[in-house]
Design brief:
The chain is an alpha/beta fold and about 550 residues long. The chain contains 19 helices and 16 strands. It has a six-stranded parallel beta sheet with strand order 3-2-1-12-13-7, sandwiched between helices. The protein has a four-stranded antiparallel beta sheet with strand order 5-4-6-8, with no helix packed on it. It has a three-stranded antiparallel beta sheet with strand order 9-11-10. Helix 10 links the parallel strand 12 and strand 13.
Length: about 550
Amino acid sequence: MLPGGGDAWKGRRRSRRKGRNATAVSDDVFYLTTPIYYVNDVPHLGHAYTTVVADFIARWRRLQGRKVHFLTGTDEHGLKIARTAEAHGVRPREWTDQILPRWIELWDALDISNDDFIRTTEERHEHAVQTFMQALHDRGEIYLGTYEGLYCVGCEAFKVPEDLVDGRCPLHGTVPEVVKEDNYFFPLSKYKDRLLELYGRDPPFVLPEARLNEVEGKVKQGLEDLSISRSSFDWGIPIPWDPSHVIYVWVEALQNYITAVGYGSDPARFGSVWPADVHFVGKDILWFHTVIWPAMLMALDLPLPRKVFAHGYLQVGGEKMSKSKLTGISPHDLLPTFGSDGYRYYFAREISFGLDGNFSWESMAARYNSDLANDFGNLASRVLTMAQRYLGGVVPIAPEPDEVTDSEAGLMEVFASSFRAMEEGVDELAPHEALRAAWAFVRKANAYVEATTAWALAKSGDSRRLEVVLYTLLDSLRLLALILWPIIPRAADELWRRLGNTDSVSDMTYAADARPGLITAGSATVVGAPLFPRIDEAAAAPR
């Protein structure tokens, strides 16, 4: 069992040492978050999908020289947790302590580089939430009333008949419970106009555009005040002025984003990090993040997050993955075959972030073999093998300007255009586009191998032209290790070492290092085992 707080996994990422690129590091903090995940059960692929993409963006921003604060964590209160714990014969906190290691183990296995991990059961969160709620109460933004209506325990959300399909929650297939109890309310309805003004701003508050249109259209229909407490159970954070109520789980869960950066405890830190640059969420929790959350922040005159990006569902056989419907596939089922890098690459590349996407073992195996084993892995093996065979594994002297032909210039032009497109893809939160751009350079490098025929140059005795070709290829591998490290960090780090580098990719910055001609002449290279061994697609599939 883990200790009470989230300290066991806070700040796990190794700090970058100060080096030759230290002056390129910006003081501007880039703050990004995943949802905090509900720990009524173990994680499935959908949870890892969001977190892998967020990690890709975080790593890229670090190599841009940004100070990054990357937050993830777990949501541990609410009726669903209480009932799950009861079904297992334990108290809610015992249940969350038992389940939590499964989540942390997965993030470790996937090389997630979060800077903080928050649990809503931590004392720091309770303190921040009670401070926030008391401030709302003191401003007259909370009143006592009676709620009577429908509540979906699976969603931990209040429902109206229009939300249901044949009387059932469309996400969980369950009939919502009828609830009547005295609750405290937040006057959400009075924030309609301010929210609509928010949705009209440029740059947009909500992405992709379809999700913005969805939430804007719903808000235009009108808002009802929000019940923000429950009095029929006690697993939650107590209302500070009335401990007979606990705070509605979604209301307090949203506040994790400000808890983690010092709200209510460290004003200087809060002012330097908040607001978040982007909240990554699934489209099923769009309403909470784009209506309830900004309205509560407006009520306290706090800065709003700059952007909320709601991605689509990850589906198997056309059905959304979920724990409650038992369609979830454990990421641990895939890691022995595809490894962390193969897993990360597939989910960031295969699915258009923002749209629904279908997972299949067959598509994952095909993408792994095509892109990682064939295109990238084979390129690295061929180049390092030729360097060993023809140059004794030593990086040659860089070519002089008059030794550079159209072939070398053309290859580096593709690198420059690919890198620009990758930057645009990251800025637009389109990892699939960023990786598509990277592979344009991978494929151009493979074409350069075939066009320059190092083996023929070695046979003909044209040693200097051979050195120019292999220098260009080794330098291309250096550039690939640098730009692919955010998504395949293990392979990129290994390739970086095989190229004779004694520092780390994480010590670099794109401003200083993402340009040709920086591989060090005289460095010793190593061939090593294939970075991505091919897999037998038929034999590897689960049976």
